[in-house]
Amino acid sequence: MLHYREPSKSVKRAIAGMVLAVAALLALVACSSDEEDEVDRRLAESFLRNSPTFRFDGMPDTVKLLDRAAGDCEKCVVYTFGFESSHPGYGDRIDLPLAASVTPHEAVIFVEDGLVASAKIDSIWDVITQGPIARTASAENESGTPVTALLDSPFELHIGQDAVFGDEGLKITFVDVSEDSRCPAATNCVVSGLAKIRVDVVAGERSLGMHEFVLDQRTIGGTARGIGQYVFSMRELNPYPGTATAPYAAIFVVSKVVAA
After folding, report:
1. Are 180 and 135 in contact (CB under 8 A)?
2. How big is the chain by its Cα radius of gyration, in Å?
3. Is it the case that residue 137 has pLDDT exceeding 90?
4. With contact defined as beta carbons under 8 Å apart, do 195 and 174 qualify?
């Protein structure tokens, strides 16, 4: 038969003291963690408010913390802020003609060990380097329906899409966008940036290889190159950074070289 012996008062007092000590320690840890988080949040918000984009025309009363998430390291935190500016664009736009249009923005600021490691606005503008963020894309989510194209006529291709030319036996595949660092619309950039895309070309059963086309803001009318018996001209790559978030689409014109 088991017998229960009531703990002595001294044991009870010892246990109660341990419980209180553990509770106090946990409260202290929680308080310390909250204080650190508040310091990091203020750091991130101050960094945003002092950025050239916000200083130029940010509306102070519109700043709101939208999200806080743990980063991929022990002392990493990601803060997402929403704010509005009185004009479109990024950075210092003092010498640019600007439309008076209230523009909403989303800033994502990554704090690591008490320092701002990265900061981006609208996934387009790098606050630290003060330049546009190069965009890349894959073919996974783009249209796979082939386009029936005609020589000497403009046609549009999305990433992963083919253009076929009927009797010519010619097929072009828009493979990817390897770089898009063009200066966003209504933004004053130190460098103009450029866009690079790759296309794969097949004529009949013969591969004509992978080819890169480059556009920059100084290119007028697009960029052209001869491939086999044809001249390929890339006229545009849409959307232009800072104007929309639609999938990439390149506009081409293909002409056939006629032997003299």
Report:
1. yes
2. 29
3. no
4. no
Long-range contacts, 193-199 (Cβ 8 Å, 24+):
193/131, 193/132, 193/217, 195/237, 197/234, 197/237, 197/248, 197/250, 199/172, 199/173, 199/174, 199/175, 199/232
Spatial strand order of the sheet with 223-227 comes to: 155-158, 249-256, 230-238, 223-227
Of the chain, the percentage scoring pLDDT greater than 70 comes to: 77
Q: What is the pLDDT of residue 138?
A: 46
pLDDT tier at 30, thresholds 50, 70, 90: very low
Residue carrying the six token digits 């056939």: 256
Nearest to 131 by CA among 71, 59, 51: 51
Amino acid making up residue 154: P
Beta-bridge partners for 111: 77, 116
Report residue 76 as tokens. 């990493």
Listed residue (100, 131, 116) closest to 49, CA to CA? 116
Q: Which of 14-18, 74-78, 137-141 has the lowest mean pLDDT?
A: 137-141
Select from 194, 205, 207, 211 the least CA-distant residue to 252.
211
Q: Given the structure tokens 């008062």, which residue do they identify?
A: 9
